[in-house]
Specification:
With about 375 residues, the protein is of the alpha/beta class. The chain has 13 helices and 16 strands. It has helices spanning about 5-35, 45-60, 65-85, 90-100, 120-130, 140-150, 170-175, 215-220, 220-225, 235-245, 260-265, 310-320, 355-360, and strands at about 110-115, 135-140, 155-165, 165-170, 180-190, 195-200, 210, 230-235, 250-255, 265-270, 280-285, 300-305, 325-335, 340-350, 370-375, 380. The strands form 3 sheets. Strands 1, 2, 3, 4, 5, 11 and 16 form a 7-stranded mixed sheet that branches. A 5-stranded mixed sheet has the order 8-7-9-6-10. It has a 4-stranded antiparallel sheet with strand order 13-14-12-15, with helices on both faces. A hairpin with a 3-residue loop joins strand 3 (about 155-165) and strand 4 (about 165-170). Helix 1 (about 5-35) packs across helix 3 (about 65-85), helix 2 packs antiparallel against helix 3 and helix 3 packs across helix 12. The radius of gyration is 26 Å and the shape is elongated.
Protein backbone atom coordinates (compact mmCIF):
# COMPACT_ATOMS: atom_id res chain seq x y z
CA UNK A 1 0.00 0.00 0.00
CA UNK A 2 1.48 3.37 -0.99
CA UNK A 3 1.52 6.60 1.05
CA UNK A 4 -1.10 8.44 -1.01
CA UNK A 5 -3.56 5.58 -0.62
CA UNK A 6 -3.13 5.62 3.17
CA UNK A 7 -3.60 9.39 3.24
CA UNK A 8 -6.83 9.04 1.28
CA UNK A 9 -8.07 6.57 3.88
CA UNK A 10 -7.22 9.03 6.66
CA UNK A 11 -9.08 11.80 4.80
CA UNK A 12 -12.21 9.65 4.68
CA UNK A 13 -11.96 8.96 8.41
CA UNK A 14 -11.34 12.65 9.15
CA UNK A 15 -14.47 13.62 7.24
CA UNK A 16 -16.43 11.18 9.39
CA UNK A 17 -14.80 12.53 12.58
CA UNK A 18 -15.66 16.13 11.70
CA UNK A 19 -19.27 15.17 11.09
CA UNK A 20 -19.44 13.22 14.35
CA UNK A 21 -17.74 16.08 16.21
CA UNK A 22 -20.36 18.54 14.97
CA UNK A 23 -23.14 16.15 16.02
CA UNK A 24 -21.55 15.72 19.45
CA UNK A 25 -21.23 19.47 20.02
CA UNK A 26 -24.86 20.03 18.98
CA UNK A 27 -25.95 17.49 21.59
CA UNK A 28 -23.64 19.13 24.15
CA UNK A 29 -25.46 22.39 23.45
CA UNK A 30 -28.84 20.74 24.08
CA UNK A 31 -27.50 19.23 27.32
CA UNK A 32 -26.43 22.71 28.39
CA UNK A 33 -29.97 24.00 27.83
CA UNK A 34 -31.35 21.11 29.89
CA UNK A 35 -28.90 21.83 32.72
CA UNK A 36 -29.90 25.49 32.68
CA UNK A 37 -33.63 24.66 32.86
CA UNK A 38 -33.04 22.24 35.75
CA UNK A 39 -30.48 24.29 37.65
CA UNK A 40 -27.59 21.90 37.06
CA UNK A 41 -23.91 22.93 36.75
CA UNK A 42 -22.09 22.65 33.43
CA UNK A 43 -19.34 20.52 34.96
CA UNK A 44 -20.26 17.01 36.09
CA UNK A 45 -16.89 15.82 37.37
CA UNK A 46 -18.06 12.33 38.30
CA UNK A 47 -19.59 11.76 34.85
CA UNK A 48 -16.38 12.96 33.11
CA UNK A 49 -14.16 10.77 35.27
CA UNK A 50 -16.21 7.65 34.59
CA UNK A 51 -16.44 8.47 30.90
CA UNK A 52 -12.68 8.98 30.62
CA UNK A 53 -11.96 5.66 32.33
CA UNK A 54 -14.42 3.88 30.04
CA UNK A 55 -12.89 5.42 26.90
CA UNK A 56 -9.34 4.57 28.01
CA UNK A 57 -10.28 0.92 28.53
CA UNK A 58 -12.12 0.73 25.22
CA UNK A 59 -9.10 2.17 23.37
CA UNK A 60 -6.90 -0.73 24.43
CA UNK A 61 -3.56 -0.78 26.20
CA UNK A 62 -1.53 0.74 23.37
CA UNK A 63 -3.90 3.67 22.73
CA UNK A 64 -5.40 4.32 26.17
CA UNK A 65 -3.09 7.22 27.10
CA UNK A 66 -3.59 8.90 23.70
CA UNK A 67 -7.35 8.46 23.99
CA UNK A 68 -7.30 10.01 27.47
CA UNK A 69 -5.47 13.10 26.17
CA UNK A 70 -7.82 13.44 23.19
CA UNK A 71 -10.99 13.18 25.24
CA UNK A 72 -9.72 15.42 28.04
CA UNK A 73 -9.33 18.12 25.42
CA UNK A 74 -12.72 17.27 23.92
CA UNK A 75 -14.36 17.66 27.35
CA UNK A 76 -12.75 21.09 27.72
CA UNK A 77 -14.03 22.09 24.28
CA UNK A 78 -17.53 20.92 25.18
CA UNK A 79 -17.58 22.86 28.46
CA UNK A 80 -16.30 25.99 26.72
CA UNK A 81 -19.04 25.66 24.10
CA UNK A 82 -21.71 25.04 26.74
CA UNK A 83 -20.64 28.16 28.62
CA UNK A 84 -20.89 30.12 25.38
CA UNK A 85 -24.34 28.71 24.60
CA UNK A 86 -25.62 29.57 28.06
CA UNK A 87 -23.85 32.92 28.28
CA UNK A 88 -22.34 31.81 31.59
CA UNK A 89 -19.97 34.46 32.82
CA UNK A 90 -18.90 36.40 35.90
CA UNK A 91 -18.44 40.06 36.66
CA UNK A 92 -14.86 40.21 35.32
CA UNK A 93 -15.73 40.56 31.59
CA UNK A 94 -18.05 43.44 32.49
CA UNK A 95 -15.29 45.11 34.54
CA UNK A 96 -12.88 44.77 31.63
CA UNK A 97 -15.38 46.25 29.18
CA UNK A 98 -16.03 49.15 31.58
CA UNK A 99 -12.29 49.80 31.92
CA UNK A 100 -11.86 49.79 28.14
CA UNK A 101 -14.71 52.28 27.84
CA UNK A 102 -13.75 54.56 30.74
CA UNK A 103 -9.94 54.71 30.38
CA UNK A 104 -8.59 57.85 28.68
CA UNK A 105 -7.61 57.41 25.02
CA UNK A 106 -3.98 58.41 25.66
CA UNK A 107 -1.52 57.10 28.23
CA UNK A 108 -0.55 60.02 30.55
CA UNK A 109 2.67 61.88 29.80
CA UNK A 110 3.09 63.09 33.40
CA UNK A 111 2.46 61.25 36.64
CA UNK A 112 3.89 60.57 40.08
CA UNK A 113 5.75 57.29 39.66
CA UNK A 114 7.38 55.04 42.28
CA UNK A 115 10.75 53.42 41.50
CA UNK A 116 13.15 51.33 43.54
CA UNK A 117 16.67 52.69 44.02
CA UNK A 118 18.17 56.13 43.51
CA UNK A 119 18.73 58.44 40.55
CA UNK A 120 20.47 56.61 37.72
CA UNK A 121 18.72 53.28 38.37
CA UNK A 122 17.54 51.25 35.40
CA UNK A 123 14.01 51.56 36.78
CA UNK A 124 14.30 55.31 36.34
CA UNK A 125 15.34 54.86 32.71
CA UNK A 126 12.36 52.56 32.15
CA UNK A 127 10.13 55.14 33.81
CA UNK A 128 11.36 57.84 31.44
CA UNK A 129 10.64 55.57 28.48
CA UNK A 130 7.07 55.05 29.64
CA UNK A 131 6.35 58.68 30.63
CA UNK A 132 7.53 61.86 28.91
CA UNK A 133 7.82 63.90 32.14
CA UNK A 134 7.49 61.62 35.20
CA UNK A 135 7.74 62.85 38.78
CA UNK A 136 9.82 60.02 40.19
CA UNK A 137 9.70 59.04 43.85
CA UNK A 138 12.49 56.66 44.91
CA UNK A 139 12.02 53.88 47.44
CA UNK A 140 14.49 51.59 49.16
CA UNK A 141 12.94 48.28 48.09
CA UNK A 142 10.38 46.79 45.71
CA UNK A 143 7.83 46.13 48.44
CA UNK A 144 7.73 49.87 49.16
CA UNK A 145 6.99 50.53 45.48
CA UNK A 146 3.99 48.19 45.61
CA UNK A 147 2.84 49.79 48.88
CA UNK A 148 3.18 53.32 47.48
CA UNK A 149 0.88 52.41 44.59
CA UNK A 150 -1.51 50.40 46.76
CA UNK A 151 -1.87 53.26 49.28
CA UNK A 152 -2.37 55.90 46.58
CA UNK A 153 0.85 57.77 47.40
CA UNK A 154 1.94 57.30 43.76
CA UNK A 155 -0.37 56.75 40.83
CA UNK A 156 2.05 54.35 39.15
CA UNK A 157 5.05 52.19 39.94
CA UNK A 158 7.73 50.79 37.61
CA UNK A 159 9.23 47.41 38.50
CA UNK A 160 11.62 44.96 36.74
CA UNK A 161 10.00 41.60 36.05
CA UNK A 162 12.43 39.53 34.00
CA UNK A 163 15.79 39.67 32.25
CA UNK A 164 16.69 38.00 28.97
CA UNK A 165 19.85 36.41 30.42
CA UNK A 166 19.34 36.18 34.20
CA UNK A 167 15.68 35.16 34.02
CA UNK A 168 12.75 36.17 36.20
CA UNK A 169 13.09 38.40 39.25
CA UNK A 170 11.62 35.91 41.71
CA UNK A 171 11.24 38.48 44.48
CA UNK A 172 8.77 40.43 42.31
CA UNK A 173 6.59 37.39 41.66
CA UNK A 174 6.49 36.72 45.40
CA UNK A 175 5.45 40.32 46.10
CA UNK A 176 2.78 40.13 43.40
CA UNK A 177 0.99 37.52 45.50
CA UNK A 178 0.87 39.88 48.47
CA UNK A 179 -0.33 43.14 46.89
CA UNK A 180 -3.38 44.46 45.07
CA UNK A 181 -2.41 46.12 41.78
CA UNK A 182 -2.98 46.17 38.02
CA UNK A 183 -0.51 46.24 35.12
CA UNK A 184 -1.19 49.10 32.70
CA UNK A 185 1.90 49.04 30.44
CA UNK A 186 5.29 47.39 29.99
CA UNK A 187 8.58 48.12 28.26
CA UNK A 188 11.90 46.43 27.50
CA UNK A 189 15.14 48.24 28.27
CA UNK A 190 18.57 47.29 26.90
CA UNK A 191 20.90 46.77 29.83
CA UNK A 192 24.58 47.71 29.57
CA UNK A 193 26.51 47.36 32.83
CA UNK A 194 29.67 49.44 33.19
CA UNK A 195 32.42 48.99 35.76
CA UNK A 196 32.99 52.40 37.39
CA UNK A 197 35.51 53.76 39.85
CA UNK A 198 36.52 57.13 41.33
CA UNK A 199 38.86 59.18 39.17
CA UNK A 200 42.42 57.89 39.21
CA UNK A 201 41.61 54.31 40.28
CA UNK A 202 42.87 51.58 37.96
CA UNK A 203 41.52 48.05 37.48
CA UNK A 204 44.47 46.49 39.32
CA UNK A 205 43.57 48.60 42.39
CA UNK A 206 40.03 47.21 42.65
CA UNK A 207 39.51 44.78 45.56
CA UNK A 208 35.72 44.97 45.97
CA UNK A 209 32.86 45.44 43.49
CA UNK A 210 29.36 46.50 44.49
CA UNK A 211 26.16 45.92 42.51
CA UNK A 212 22.68 44.41 42.54
CA UNK A 213 22.51 40.60 42.48
CA UNK A 214 20.88 40.55 39.01
CA UNK A 215 23.69 42.69 37.55
CA UNK A 216 26.28 40.47 39.23
CA UNK A 217 24.65 37.42 37.66
CA UNK A 218 24.55 39.06 34.25
CA UNK A 219 28.27 39.95 34.45
CA UNK A 220 29.45 36.65 35.92
CA UNK A 221 32.00 35.86 33.19
CA UNK A 222 33.76 39.21 33.53
CA UNK A 223 33.78 38.99 37.33
CA UNK A 224 35.30 35.48 37.23
CA UNK A 225 38.24 36.94 35.30
CA UNK A 226 39.13 39.18 38.25
CA UNK A 227 41.27 37.28 40.76
CA UNK A 228 40.91 38.05 44.44
CA UNK A 229 38.12 40.60 44.04
CA UNK A 230 35.27 40.52 46.56
CA UNK A 231 31.76 40.79 45.09
CA UNK A 232 29.20 42.50 47.33
CA UNK A 233 25.45 42.67 46.66
CA UNK A 234 23.52 45.83 47.36
CA UNK A 235 19.94 46.99 46.82
CA UNK A 236 20.42 48.69 43.46
CA UNK A 237 23.03 49.28 40.74
CA UNK A 238 22.72 53.07 41.05
CA UNK A 239 22.92 52.81 44.85
CA UNK A 240 26.19 50.91 44.34
CA UNK A 241 27.55 53.81 42.27
CA UNK A 242 26.42 56.36 44.86
CA UNK A 243 28.08 54.34 47.63
CA UNK A 244 31.40 53.99 45.80
CA UNK A 245 31.41 57.72 45.04
CA UNK A 246 30.51 58.71 48.61
CA UNK A 247 32.98 56.36 50.35
CA UNK A 248 35.96 57.65 48.38
CA UNK A 249 37.70 54.29 48.59
CA UNK A 250 40.55 53.75 46.16
CA UNK A 251 39.92 49.99 45.94
CA UNK A 252 36.16 49.87 45.26
CA UNK A 253 34.12 49.80 42.06
CA UNK A 254 30.46 49.58 41.01
CA UNK A 255 28.63 47.77 38.22
CA UNK A 256 25.91 50.15 37.08
CA UNK A 257 24.41 52.02 34.13
CA UNK A 258 26.40 54.47 32.01
CA UNK A 259 24.29 57.39 33.28
CA UNK A 260 25.78 56.95 36.77
CA UNK A 261 29.17 58.20 35.58
CA UNK A 262 27.94 61.77 35.14
CA UNK A 263 25.57 61.63 38.11
CA UNK A 264 28.17 60.49 40.64
CA UNK A 265 31.46 61.67 39.11
CA UNK A 266 32.81 58.20 38.36
CA UNK A 267 35.09 56.94 35.61
CA UNK A 268 34.19 54.00 33.35
CA UNK A 269 36.84 51.25 33.44
CA UNK A 270 34.93 48.75 31.33
CA UNK A 271 31.84 49.17 29.18
CA UNK A 272 29.26 46.43 28.49
CA UNK A 273 30.57 44.05 31.14
CA UNK A 274 27.54 41.74 30.85
CA UNK A 275 27.91 38.19 29.50
CA UNK A 276 25.70 38.81 26.48
CA UNK A 277 25.33 41.97 24.41
CA UNK A 278 21.67 41.16 23.76
CA UNK A 279 20.70 41.85 27.38
CA UNK A 280 17.23 43.25 28.04
CA UNK A 281 15.10 43.70 31.14
CA UNK A 282 11.32 43.84 30.96
CA UNK A 283 9.67 46.38 33.26
CA UNK A 284 5.99 46.59 34.15
CA UNK A 285 4.08 49.74 35.06
CA UNK A 286 1.54 49.08 37.81
CA UNK A 287 -1.40 51.07 39.18
CA UNK A 288 -4.05 50.62 41.84
CA UNK A 289 -6.91 51.20 39.41
CA UNK A 290 -7.69 49.03 36.39
CA UNK A 291 -6.79 51.07 33.30
CA UNK A 292 -6.89 49.57 29.80
CA UNK A 293 -5.51 51.87 27.12
CA UNK A 294 -6.15 51.54 23.38
CA UNK A 295 -4.07 48.87 21.65
CA UNK A 296 -3.93 46.53 24.66
CA UNK A 297 -2.81 43.17 23.25
CA UNK A 298 -1.19 41.50 26.26
CA UNK A 299 -2.90 40.20 29.39
CA UNK A 300 -1.37 38.98 32.67
CA UNK A 301 -3.04 36.59 35.10
CA UNK A 302 -2.24 34.81 38.36
CA UNK A 303 -3.92 31.55 39.31
CA UNK A 304 -3.70 29.00 42.09
CA UNK A 305 -4.79 25.66 40.63
CA UNK A 306 -6.14 22.56 42.39
CA UNK A 307 -3.34 20.24 43.49
CA UNK A 308 -4.29 17.30 41.30
CA UNK A 309 -3.20 15.86 37.93
CA UNK A 310 -4.45 17.72 34.88
CA UNK A 311 -5.22 21.08 36.56
CA UNK A 312 -2.66 23.04 34.55
CA UNK A 313 -3.47 21.08 31.40
CA UNK A 314 -7.13 22.13 31.62
CA UNK A 315 -6.13 25.80 31.69
CA UNK A 316 -3.64 25.45 28.84
CA UNK A 317 -6.13 23.51 26.73
CA UNK A 318 -8.66 26.31 27.20
CA UNK A 319 -6.10 28.76 25.75
CA UNK A 320 -5.58 26.39 22.83
CA UNK A 321 -9.28 25.87 22.18
CA UNK A 322 -9.88 29.63 21.99
CA UNK A 323 -6.76 30.27 19.86
CA UNK A 324 -5.01 32.40 22.50
CA UNK A 325 -1.20 32.42 22.52
CA UNK A 326 0.68 31.96 25.80
CA UNK A 327 3.81 34.13 25.97
CA UNK A 328 5.01 33.26 29.46
CA UNK A 329 4.29 30.75 32.22
CA UNK A 330 5.95 31.17 35.61
CA UNK A 331 5.33 29.28 38.84
CA UNK A 332 6.21 30.24 42.41
CA UNK A 333 5.67 28.25 45.63
CA UNK A 334 3.09 29.76 47.96
CA UNK A 335 4.63 30.41 51.40
CA UNK A 336 3.28 28.22 54.21
CA UNK A 337 1.14 26.19 51.78
CA UNK A 338 2.81 22.86 51.10
CA UNK A 339 2.96 21.74 47.45
CA UNK A 340 0.85 24.67 46.27
CA UNK A 341 2.00 27.06 43.57
CA UNK A 342 0.95 30.35 42.09
CA UNK A 343 1.04 30.32 38.28
CA UNK A 344 1.67 33.53 36.37
CA UNK A 345 0.51 33.73 32.74
CA UNK A 346 1.20 36.28 30.00
CA UNK A 347 -1.27 35.96 27.14
CA UNK A 348 -0.91 37.49 23.70
CA UNK A 349 -4.45 38.46 22.71
CA UNK A 350 -6.31 41.69 21.89
CA UNK A 351 -8.53 42.76 24.77
CA UNK A 352 -11.30 43.43 22.25
CA UNK A 353 -11.59 39.87 20.89
CA UNK A 354 -14.69 37.82 21.80
CA UNK A 355 -12.46 34.82 22.53
CA UNK A 356 -10.63 36.85 25.20
CA UNK A 357 -13.87 37.96 26.84
CA UNK A 358 -15.11 34.37 26.82
CA UNK A 359 -11.86 33.16 28.40
CA UNK A 360 -12.09 35.74 31.20
CA UNK A 361 -15.57 34.47 31.95
CA UNK A 362 -14.44 30.86 32.24
CA UNK A 363 -11.04 30.74 33.95
CA UNK A 364 -12.28 31.27 37.50
CA UNK A 365 -14.13 27.96 37.33
CA UNK A 366 -10.83 26.15 36.69
CA UNK A 367 -8.86 27.64 39.61
CA UNK A 368 -8.91 27.81 43.39
CA UNK A 369 -7.78 31.45 43.25
CA UNK A 370 -7.77 33.78 40.25
CA UNK A 371 -6.38 37.28 39.78
CA UNK A 372 -6.68 39.35 36.60
CA UNK A 373 -3.65 41.65 36.59
CA UNK A 374 -4.57 43.74 33.57
CA UNK A 375 -4.47 44.12 29.81
CA UNK A 376 -1.92 46.47 28.27
CA UNK A 377 0.53 47.11 25.45
CA UNK A 378 4.34 47.05 25.50
CA UNK A 379 6.40 50.12 24.62
CA UNK A 380 9.39 49.26 22.44
Amino acid sequence: MDLEKMREEIDVIDDQLVDLFSQRMAIAGRIAEYKKENGLPVLDADRERKKLNSISKAAGEEMQDYAAVLYSLLFEISRSYQNKVLGITNELPEKIECAVRDTAPLFPERAVVACQGVEGAYSQQACERLFRMPEVMYFRNFESVFSAVESGLCRYGVIPLENSTAGSVNMIYDLMMEHDFRIVRSTRLKIDHCLMVPEGVQLENVKEIFSHEQAISQCSEFLKSLDGVKITCCENTAAAAAQVAADGRRDAAALCSRSCAGLYGLKILKEAAQNQSNNYTRFICISKKLEIYPGADRTSLMMVLPHRPGSLYKVLSRFYVLGINLNKLESRPIPEREFEFMFYFDLNTPVYSPQFIQLMGELQTLSDEFSYLGSYSEVI
